[in-house]
Structure formats: C-alpha cells, structure tokens
Amino acid sequence: MSKSDTLSTSRVDPATASTIDSNEVTLSEPRKDANDVIDPPKRNVLRSITIVAACTGTMILNVSASTSVSMAIPNIASELHFPSDKVAWIVSAFSLSSGCLLLLFGRLADLYGRKLVWLFGAAWIVATSIACSFTRTDTQLIILRAMHGMGVAAMVPAAVGILAHSFPPGRARSTAFATFSAGAPLGGAIGMVFGGVMAQYASWKGVFYFIAGMAAVIGVAGLFGMDPDPKRTASSSKDHSVDWPGAFLVTAGLVLLTFALSEASETGWGKPLIISFLVIGILLLILFLLWEHYVVTHFSSPPLVSLDIWTRDHGRFGAMQAVAFLEWACFTTLTFWAILYYQNYVRLDPIHTMIRFLPMPVTGVLINVVVALTVGAVNGAYLLALGTAATSTAALLFALINPDAQYWAYGFPAAILCVFGADFVFACGSLFIAKIAHPKEQSVAGALFQTVQMLGTSFGLAITTIAQAGGMKSESEALDLDISNDATALEVPPPVLLKGYRLAQWASFAFGVCGLIVVVLFLHGIGIVGSKKGKGVVAPEEAQPSRQEPIDEKVEESKEKPELSTA
After folding, report:
1. What is the pLDDT of residue 56?
2. Which residue among 75, 174, 425, 435 is least packed, with the fewest CB closer than 10 Å?
3. What sign does the dihedral 383-388-389-390 (CA atoms) show?
4. 39: pLDDT confidence band, cut at 50, 70 and 90?
5. Which distant-in-sequence residues (6+ apart) come within 8 Å of 187 by Cβ?
6. 564: pLDDT strictly greater than 90
7. Contact between residue 204 and residue 79 where contact means Cβ atoms under 8 Å apart
C-alpha cells in the first residue's frame, strides 16, 4: 500500500488490519469493541488519587523489596549459614524471576483483567514474604525469594496498564505516570532506611514482615480504589487466548540469558556452563521471535507480543527501548561500582556509604515533579537528552575521581546527576509507550519496557566487570604484582582497585553516551509525550471498524486460520 492510498475508517476490518503498515496510515478515532474499553468510568478525585497511590505503591514495593533485603544480607547470611558463593542469590533470585516473568504477566493482565492480576500479585507478595521469614536453610530462602519476585512481575505491568486505561492522554496522565516513576527513588530510600533499622534493631525477619505489611496496605487500597475490570464477552474469546509456547520460549530464554550475564559479572566467563547458558538463551529468544511471526501468519489467535510494536511511530518505539537498555546499563553499573569504590577503596562502612547516596532519592522525587509540570509542554527528546547526558556525566565524574578530593567535588554532583537519566527515561518512556500502544496491550507494552531495562542492567554489569578486570590486570602488571584471582578486595592493593573501578566507570560512561546518541538521531521527532496531540500515528488496528462491510477475500482467509490456544 502506498502513502497516497486513501482508507475509510468505516471499511477497515479487524481481520485485515494486521496487514496494514502502521507507519503508512493515520486514523483519528480509536477502535472501541468488546476487548478495548477506551473511556474509563467517571470517578471522583479521591478515587483517582487512590488509583495513583496504589500504582505508585507498586513501584515503591518493587524497589524496596530488593533494597531492604540487601541491607539485611549480612544478618541473613550469618544466621542461615549461607556459603559465600550463594549470598548474592538472596537478591538475584528475586530480580531474576521478577524480570523474566514480566512479559507473561503483562499479557495475562491485558487478557484477563489488570486489577485481577495486580491483586493476585499483591496477595502473592504477602504470602511469600511471610513464608521467607520462616525459612531455616539457604536453599529454602532462595526458592522463596524467586517465588517472591513473581508477585512483583504480576503487579508492575498491571499497574502500568491500569494507569494508562484510567487516565486518558493529557495532564492527568502525565501527573499519574510522573508520580508512578517517583516510586522508584522513594522505594530505594524507604528500603534502605527500614531495612537497615529492622536488620540492626529487630531481626532480618522483620524486613519480610515489613514487605508483607506494605503489600497488604497497597493491595487493600487497590481493591477498593481501582476501577473494576471490563467484563469478558463470548465474542472476545478468540482475543483471550494465551500464546503459551511463546511465553515458554521468552521466559526460558530470558532466565538463561540473565543467569549467564549475572554469573559472568561475578565469576567471569571462564566456566563452560555460563557460555552454554548464554548461547542457549540467545537461541531461545531468536526462536521466540520466529515463533511470534509464525503465529501472526498462520493462526488467528494473537501472539504474546506483536512484533510490529517495534516499528510503531516510524521505529521510535524500538529506539525508546534501546535508550532504556543503554540508560539502565549506565545508571545501574555506575552506582554499583561507586558503592564498591566507597566501601573497598575508601573503606567506608555501609551506613556512611549510604549517606553519600542520599541525594539520589531526593533528586529523583524532584525530577518527577519537574516531569509532571513540563512533560505536557516540552518536547520529550529534550528531557531524554538532558537525562542521558546527566547520567553520562555522573559516570565520567567517577571515572576521573580524585580520591584525595572532598566528597563535594566529585561524589556529591555525581549522586545528583546520575538519577536524571533513569527518571527522565522511565517517565517519558512510559508516557510514550502508553500513548502509542493499543488499549488491549498496555500492560504487555509496559512489561516489555521493564524487561529491556532488566536486560540492560545484566548486560551492563557483565561488560563493566570485564572492563574492571582488565583494568586491574593491566595495573598489576605495570606494578609487577602477582594478584590471585581469589583475592578479596581488601587484599588487592589500592592502586589496582582504583584502576579497575575507573575503567568500569568509563564503560558505564560509554553506555550513557550511546543512549544520548540514540536520542539525538532517532527520537528528535518524538514530540510532546504528555500531550493529547502528538506526532505518533494511531495504529490501524485501532481504527473504528464496520463489522457489516467485509473488504475482500482476505477476511475469509483469516477466518480459516486455526486458533493457537484458548485459555
């Protein structure tokens, strides 16, 4: 179809909509059918505030469930007799399951009800948090922490879909998503404070009671405050099928890939098992993409993720995912290596290290206030460019840091600047994705955005670890030192440590600069993501159909396709 062709929205049938290039068509009215409830029910201000608070609480819970447990790791490892090579799995098991199951739960939320899946996630977190407090062995806790992460995987994409459905494009949606984004720095601060207090003055079990109580309060607020899910109809049964083979391929692929990257960042690439998992994980993800294409072309049932979503708005959706990947590879690694710099090189205790990062949550909250005020009037590309440039500058400061200088010269400005990118990219990216995603795929689109961030974190840690190891090796050779691979950070000479940390930060800086380049080259035309009107096209699948007027024989061909599966 050429751009000169004229389409009447009254003659576009859903069966043939998938064959039309979304970059070639601009349609003014979104589709309304049994599956897509465009207009949210009317509600009072208090209920709207409750919805935003519950969804923001989801993000707070997501981050604090990780940071609070991290503060209690020494106590947990001591009481449960954790081997040194398993301690990291107290946090990694949670992150692995919560990240790799996002797409599956995002799809389930879009199909069976976002509020239903969200409430399931909240109840699941309450149950598994309490169960974690009763564990007696290291293996039990690791398994339960993996189950713990499933609850977050259910809640986060459902919350994104709930916000997108509850607030139409405009100032209210911008404020809602900015508040939602502010939950991340708030969760980090709350997790560090309460986790540290519980671990020091009560017990590590109190950390899990705290998480369970938080999930219960948030769940009750959502139960009574969120709008009910739309009722399913008999005519929508075909659209409510689950692509289980695709779900298996993408989940297994993400688990193996993330596990390989995480292990490589801790133990190096020398183990054959890590290489095997990496290769198998990549192959499974390639098979997932091929399978999704096969589902679209041979079945009438929808795929887990529509591959055309990557090319929406002239490829800007894919570019936004690339920016998120690179930004999280920069942000998470620069903070990771900065923490190790303070603890292992400067030799600060955890409390004094935490104090040096206190500007981060404060700045993060303020940034999201700025987002709420400006995202409806400022081109999103400017905010993204400012954010990626600021985070890159923070990494550069740590790469050039002078250990003899005061904290205010390098550490303080870096702590302020590093959160600009994460908060601007998350807030603007979430609004942009909610703007161009179809109403029936809001949760899975949000889950895809979160999954890319998780992969960026794992990939960034693996690459910066290689840089750090290379820096330490070159410096030890220059000083004619023979350092064992099993040496702890306290046994490594300070100049060798500093060289490794600096090279790791240079790698983080490279990720940030690459993200800035993607913004400048591919997202300069993104427009105002927080406004009702934007430059992004409306996908043809959202066209107002006329079910009485079939277009041609393509309709009949599509009806003959078998369904993949029906839940």
Report:
1. 95
2. 75
3. positive
4. low
5. 59, 60, 61, 62, 63, 64, 67
6. no
7. yes
- What is the fold, at CATH topology level, of the domain defined by 34-230? Growth Hormone; Chain: A; (1.20.1250)
Q: Are 112 and 457 in contact (CB under 8 A)?
A: no
Are 247 and 304 in contact, with CB atoms under 8 Å apart? yes
Least confident piece of the model among 59-63, 352-356, 429-433: 352-356
Report the alpha-carbon distance of residue 458 to residue 262 in Å, rounded.
6
CA 209 – CA 212 distance, rounded (Å): 5
CA–CA gap between residue 538 and residue 524 (Å, rounded): 19
| Residue 367 backbone dihedrals phi, psi, to 5 degrees | -65, -40
Helix (H, G, I), strand (E, B) or coil at 413: helix
Given the candidates 1.20.1250.20, 1.10.10.1100, 3.40.50.2000, 1.10.10.10, the CATH classification of the domain at 306-538 is 1.20.1250.20
- What confidence tens digit (pLDDT) does each residue in 79-113 have? 888 776 677 788 778 888 888 899 999 989 988 89
Tokens of 69: 């447990």
CA distance 527 to 202: 51
Q: Which is nearest to 266 in space by CA: 84, 101, 399? A: 84
